[in-house]
Amino acid sequence: MNKQKSVVLYPGLGVGHLTPMIELAKVFTQHGVAVTVALAEPPTKSSDFSAAAARAAASNPSVNFHVLPPPDPADSSSSSDDTHSDPVVQMLGYLKAMNAPLRDLLRSLPAVDALVVDMFCGDALGVAAELNLPVYYFYASGASTLAVFLNLPRMMATGFQLETTGDDSVLSLPGAPPFKASELPEVILNGSQAGKAVLRVLYLFAEASGILVNTFESLETRAVRALRDGLCVPDRSTPPVYCIGPLVSGGGDKEHECLRWLDMQPDNSVVFLSFGSLGTFPKKQLEEMAIGLEKSGQRFLWVVRSPRNNPGDALGQPLPEPDLEALLPEGFLERTKDRGLVLKSWAPQVDVLRHKATGAFVTHCGWNSTLEGIMAGLPLLCWPLYAEQRMNKVFIVEEMKIGVEMNGYDEEMVKAEEVETKVKWVMESQGGQALRDRLAEVKDRAVKALKEGGSSYAAFVEFLKDIDSMADLHP
Ligand code: UDP
Questions:
Q1: What pLDDT, in 10s, does the model give residues 328-368?
Q2: Using an 8 Å Cβ cutoff, are 292 and 329 in contact?
Q3: Using alpha carbons only, what angle is made at residue 203 by residues 202 and 207, rounded to the nearest 5 degrees?
Q4: CB-neighbour burial class of residue 309 (10 A; exposed 0-12, middle 13-18, buried 19+)
Q5: What's the rounded Cα separation, in Å, for the pair 85 and 351?
Q6: C-beta of 384 in contact with ligand 1 (< 6 A)
Q7: Domain enclosing residue 21, as ranges
Q8: How far apart, in whole angstroms, are the C-alpha atoms of residue 80 and residue 83?
Q9: Same-domain status, 243 and 305
Q10: Are 50 and 199 contained in the same domain?
Q11: Is the distance from CB of 385 to CB of 322 less than 8 angstroms?
Q12: Co-location of 181 and 37 in the same domain
């Protein structure tokens, strides 16, 4: 009898990275593979991350969760980087220092066939090599950004600089429609220490045995073709790419008060506004949004977080609960209480999106949110904020044609009139209806891709076969 295959998944830090990795764990177990999830807890306690990890462990009894002990403070890689103030550099240094506990875990498990790591856990490749273990990436964003990112280390090494090319310079890279260089992640554009660290992370991608991508082929055909044809990693070979998504969480707190509120609203009538696990706005921007929503006359469900003192501190300290009365225009909550609900800090997003009363999604274009919007069949109003979200916005609007942008996202402020106009457009106009029809069709394709016989199902089976063949090379 064949022995049961066994894999270790290493999700790194952040809710947006953990959630889809847990969905991946479920797919492995559905295919009869034993799964251990190696959890690195964030150095700064994050209640969102801890809650997501606890929920994942409680609802997936067939997956073995192992919390890695924190790194030894004497570990040079953690202590030197801790002194660096940049949160990205700190995060990467911390993950590097987690190599020791990860190595201990991998050694303690009886027989592991493969290690699957998050995009930021590239330093674990060294551990896998030491232990003669095949290692794969799970890229929790889309194929289009992957195509661009694989190209970036060389592009930057050969002298590309935004300062010399200008904000409006257009990049034409294999696998992506032309887009403005200024849509690249800020961390890469500013030439900082963090940018260099991220480029190293991206460089390591091509060293893996393969890359699993949380997308489905028909959503990103141009990118998938370019990746397959090896056009995205100049001068090096591209590892096999497996599009196995969309892997989207099944939801959480079904009893949340906002779901009971949605029960009382008409079908397809509510605009949901939510900006990922980290998105925040200055008070002035929150006020503009509130005015726009009020003037639109539409029903809305809006997740509001406290503003950050330092907007660049996206991975920083947890935020206090917002004081809604103080943050939003005077009387706003009272005047809109019959048709609007404002939630503090967090919503059960997947359940909200899938509720029949929800009709459109104002999103920061995080990839999980994008896929969750697709699986709920909702038109997207795109308001990108950080990381690769501005690129996602380009692909969502121009390639996938499943959303429109909020003008002003890349300026100082999105004006109240823009919020009012776009929200009304998506809920009331023929254009909005056409977008909704398009989403229904894309959702249908996504569902088919995941079923037996679909492209994502087939890609996962092919990936499992690849692990088998690697076992012969890594006896
Ligand atoms: N999320 C949620 N409630 C919130 C905000 C976010 O459940 O109020 C979830 C959302 O459903 C998604 C994840 O957090 O699964 C955010 O991931 P995404 O890739 O969209 O953005 P990130 O947080 O990584 O920027």
A1: 999 999 999 999 999 999 999 999 999 999 999 999 999 99
A2: no
A3: 110
A4: exposed
A5: 37
A6: no
A7: 6-247+450-473
A8: 6
A9: no
A10: yes
A11: no
A12: yes
Q: Phi and psi (nearest 5°) for 342?
A: -110, 125
Helix or strand (DSSP H, E) at 351? helix 349-354
For residue range 200-239, list pLDDT tens digits in order.
999 999 999 999 999 999 999 999 999 999 999 988 899 9
Domain identity same for 289 and 236: no
ipTM score of the complex?
A: 1.00
Residue 279 alpha carbon, nearest atom of ligand 1? 25
Closest by CA to 181, choosing from 365, 415, 410, is 410
What is the bridge-based pairing of β-strands 135-139 and 340-344? unpaired
The protein residue whose alpha carbon is closest to atom 7 in ligand 1 is 349
CATH number, residue 187: 3.40.50.2000
The verdict on 55 and 68 lying in the same domain is yes
Residue 1 domain flag: no
Q: Residue 107 C-alpha to ligand 1 middle, in angstroms?
A: 33
Please state whether the predicted TM-score (pTM) of the whole model is above 0.90: yes
Tokens for 330? 């005077």
Task: Please provide the DSSP assignment of 296-341 as one string.
Answer: HT-EEEEEE-PPPSSTT-TTSSPPPPP-HHHHSPTTHHHHTTTTEE
Could you tell me if 313 and 214 lie in one domain?
no
How many angstroms separate the alpha carbon of residue 416 from the centre of ligand 1?
Answer: 24
- What does DSSP say about strands 179-180 and 170-171: parallel, antiparallel, or unpaired? antiparallel
